[in-house]
Design goal:
The complex is a heterodimer of chains A (310) and B (270).
Chain A: E1 4-6, H1 7-21, E2 25-29, H2 33-36, H3 38-44, E3 49-51, H4 56-67, E4 72-76, H5 79-85, H6 87-95, E5 101-105, H7 124-129, E6 135-137, H8 142-154, E7 159-162, E8 167-169, E9 184-187, E10 192-196, H9 199-213, E11 218-222, E12 225-227, H10 231-240, E13 244-251, H11 256-265, E14 272-277, H12 287-293, H13 298-309
Parallel strand pairs in A: 2-3, 2-4, 4-5, 5-7, 6-7, 10-11, 10-13, 13-14
Antiparallel strand pairs in A: 1-8, 6-12, 9-11
Chain B: H1 5-26, H2 31-36, H3 38-48, E1 63-66, H4 72-82, H5 122-135, E2 142-147, H6 154-165, E3 171-177, E4 180-181, E5 184-185, H7 186-190, H8 195-201, E6 205-210, H9 214-226, E7 232-237, H10 260-269
Parallel strand pairs in B: 1-2, 2-3, 3-7, 6-7
Antiparallel strand pairs in B: 4-5
Chain lengths: 310, 270
């Protein structure tokens, strides 16, 4: 079995698979289908795929219209365009109306790399989580991506599913059962908790190994459903460990970190640190250079833990 | 439906009366544009569209979207007179807990295909419904009414482009061309002309009519049905505030409800 796989490739394959089981799935894209892999579905079911060109606002409106006719609509593009560009259309035509549209975007975070700031979605979780009726999922790996897509098809209502560009290490097991709103504790521990999503989970697990050698016991939680967030697991971690660190390939304002802070602020007081992009825009570099530059690494997460605990 | 032009004109008059009454009661809302669009809405609900008030989700129904959602009083009146809900509800417009919201809310009102209010969105939604119709091989038609100021929104042109690209000849749009928007005349705020040429350039069949003349509205709708492989835009020249002499052609009745004194005067005329 592959140790790592691009979550967008899994999306492409999963769409092909469920395309046969769900004849009323329609897939839309905004000229990014070869990158988002919706083109794979388009190859198998050309009559059920529609490219709307570089017009995301229209794509979301059309998605809503199709959904009113009983279709399960997948709308894909790069994360920045599928969240920021057409935010109001997602708000009004899809969320306010509570229609059955699954917005599955790829190339989120810094993983776009060389294309630079215009193409790096670092605020999309903040945006999408602010919308009533929206479910926001950041799958951690290929296994969770497949399960989340299937769950989204089976569950009525708007979804925003955030995928990357690069290969993500496989972290979950084949028998993993995804449940909306249920975080997964990947590693038990009782000194400190790291709550992370996406690519930051494997970095968090690396940090946990480093800290173990120093006698620090680290709990690592995969909070793949950011909305509705698993409050119980956060409160439990706050009660049972001494500090909570969040880590995301996203701004520290309003994403996973913000969501966890909201829960803690109204429940159990515990020291907290948000690891993410510090309210600045990205820039052109390789994905790895960007992750290093913004300290989205296991080493830095471990350093942050040491600082908080001291 | 076998209604005569005379009957339709009478229904349009009733709709105008209800618009004035419900806006006065509500104390806020948009009389000018609701009155200018009343004839189009009447033609669609009472002659042109096949729909069933007893079965609002009838899969083969024609669909109507009021993209210029602020003029929803006209649509509410048409829905009530058609029998989708009790006429009494009209007097609850914009009130707390009302099923009749200030702008169309499909989750609260029976008979609405989509929610709208923020301009520029409805044609995209209509395009999606038309696309579904083509895919499902159904012969229902989709009607979308836009405002003239509304076509200043870029999304409208995205929708126009895709409707022509996908040859959505089951999509018929109207422009309620009453020449006025909030800040004044459309041509002075942000000129949209040559508007018919623009729709043609985007691959649409474009017709221009007097949108307050029932015969012309019906004729245009019939012409649209016969156009193949391209959607149709009916540029309907109208008078903002049509039917109430002191509101006709006035900018300031765009978004201000009539006072009870104005209401009395208006009803006398109607």
């Amino acid at each position: 079995m592959d140790k790592e796989v691009a979550t967008r490739d899994v999306y492409g394959k999963t769409l092909q698979k469920i395309g046969s089981q769900y004849p009323n799935i329609i897939v839309l894209d905004a000229d990014c289908s070869s990158s988002t892999r919706t083109s794979w579905f388009a190859r198998d079911y050309p009559e059920r795929f529609f490219n709307l060109g570089i017009a995301e606002a229209n794509m979301m409106g059309m998605a809503a219209g199709l959904a009113t006719c009983g279709k399960i609509v997948f709308a894909s593009t790069f994360a920045i365009f599928g969240s920021a560009r057409c935010f109001e259309q997602v708000r009004d035509s899809i969320c306010w109306t509570n229609l059955n549209v699954k917005i599955v975007v790829t190339h989120a975070g810094l993983s776009v790399g060389e294309d630079g700031a215009s193409h790096q979605a670092i605020e999309d979780v903040t945006l999408m989580r602010s919308l009533p009726n929206m479910t926001v999922i950041v799958p951690v790996d290929g296994i969770e991506t497949e399960r989340a897509i299937i769950k989204a098809v089976e569950t009525s209502g708007p979804f925003y599913i955030r995928l990357g560009r690069a290969k993500f290490p496989i972290v979950l097991k084949e028998d993993y059962q995804f449940q909306i709103g249920k975080a997964v504790t990947l590693r038990e521990g009782n000194d400190v908790t790291i709550i992370a999503v996406g690519l930051m989970i494997s970095e968090s697990l690396k940090a946990a190994l480093i800290l173990e050698k120093e006698g620090i016991s680290t709990r690592v939680i995969n909070m793949s459903t950011i909305k509705p967030i698993d409050k119980e697991v956060i409160i439990k971690a706050a009660q049972e460990t001494k500090a909570i660190i969040t880590a995301e390939e996203h701004t520290v304002i309003g994403g996973l970190g913000g969501a966890v802070a909201e829960v803690l602020g109204e429940s159990v007081s515990v020291p907290m640190r948000r690891i993410g992009i510090p309210d600045v825009f990205g820039f052109s570099a390789t994905p790895n250079e960007l992750l290093e530059y913004f300290k989205l690494t296991g080493l830095h997460i471990a350093q942050t833990v040491r600082e908080v605990l001291s | 439906m076998k209604r005569t032009v005379k009957e339709l004109k009478e229904i349009a008059r009733e709709i105008r009366i209800l618009i004035i009454k419900m806006l006065t009661k509500a104390g806020s809302g948009h009389p000018g544009g609701s009155l200018s669009v009343a004839d189009l809405v009447t033609a669609l609900y009472f002659k042109v569209m096949k729909h069933d008030p007893m079965n609002p989700k009838w899969p083969d129904r024609d669909r109507f979207i009021l993209s210029k959602g602020h003029c929803v009083p006209a649509q509410y009146a048409a829905l009530a007179l058609s029998g989708y809900f009790d006429q009494e509800l009209l007097m609850t417009l914009r009130k707390f807990n009302s099923s009749l919201q200030g702008h169309p809310d499909m989750t609260k009102t029976v008979g609405l295909e989509i929610s709208s209010g923020s301009l520029g969105q409805g044609l995209s939604v209509g395009g999606g419904i038309a696309l579904a119709g083509k895919y499902d091989r159904k012969d229902y038609r989709v009607y979308v009414i836009l405002g003239d100021g509304e076509v200043q929104e870029g999304q409208v042109w995205e929708a126009a482009m895709s409707a022509a690209h996908y040859k959505l000849d089951n999509l018929c749009a109207f422009l309620d061309y009453n020449k006025l928007q909030i800040d004044g005349k459309v041509e002075e705020v942000m000129n949209i002309n040559p508007i018919s040429d623009k729709w043609r350039a985007f691959g649409w069949h474009s017709i221009e009519i007097d949108g307050n003349k029932m015969e012309e509205v019906l004729k245009a709708c019939q012409e649209a049905k016969e156009i193949k492989n391209k959607p149709t835009m009916i540029i309907a020249h109208t008078v903002k505030g049509k039917g109430v002499s002191f509101m006709e052609g006035m900018v300031n009745y765009h978004g201000v409800a009539p006072t009870s004194e104005e209401c009395e005067r208006a009803l006398k005329e109607l």
